[in-house]
Amino acid sequence: MTIRPILTAPDPRLKAVSTDVEKVDAEIRKLAADMADSMYEADGIGLAAVQIGVPKRVIVIDLDQKDGKKNPRTFINPKITWTSEEMATFEEGCLSVPDIWDDVERPARIKAEYLDLDGKRVEMEADGLLATCLQHEMDHLQGVLFIDHLSRLKRSMAIKKLTKAKKLAV
Ligand code: K1U
Ligand code: ZN
User: Fold this and answer.
1) Please, what sign has the CA dihedral across residues 99, 13, 143, 153?
2) Which of 46, 58, 48, 49 has its CA nearest to residue 21?
3) Which ligand 1 atom minimizes the distance to the CA of 44?
4) CA of 152 to the centre of ligand 1 (A)
């Protein structure tokens, strides 16, 4: 089990645009396993590789964590192929934006495709929290945080709070 530290805003490495995985090999499977360990340790439901400083298009999500049961899903080179016109609002949090939660509106339903841990292409449809979480994690792959969806005032208040918390931590 390897827990890797999760970067927190305003770390500039979170702004990196992640690149496609060329081959799903042992190194990528180890990265996905480390990401899952790090996500569980931080009590998260999702994590993008860039959040542990690896700007590759890899995401892990586990929405079924109950009674210590673990069922992480890995999405490699994910791509959204369709979004609904209907929108949905969820209160979002982020392991890279600690202690800040706010409502974000996103398409309610999406279709996506990705590679699984065997390198097989998978097509899927998602709604509810899975659709929200996938869009949130795919934003990370573009260097976008959920606070970038908030008003300028809310975003600058959030950055101030995060910067102050970092200064107090040293
Ligand atoms: O990207 C991340 O940092 C993961 C993030 C995912 C997410 C949460 C909510 C809406 C959209 C995306 C998190 O896991 S934040 C932590 C969290 O959700 C949670 C923590 C403790 C208990 C319950 C939930
Ligand atoms: Zn996040």
Assistant:
1) positive
2) 58
3) 14
4) 22
Rounded Cα–Cα distance for residues 145 and 87 (Å):
19
Give per-residue pLDDT as tens, 116-126: 999 999 999 99
Q: What are phi and psi of 150, to 5 degrees?
A: -90, 170
**Cis ω on the peptide bond leading into residue 10 (within 30° of 0)?**
yes
pLDDT digits (tens, 9 = 90+) for 66-121: 888 899 999 999 999 999 999 999 999 999 999 999 999 999 999 999 999 999 99
pTM of the model: 0.96
Contacts with 86 (C-beta within 8 Å, 6 or more apart), sequence order = 107, 108, 109
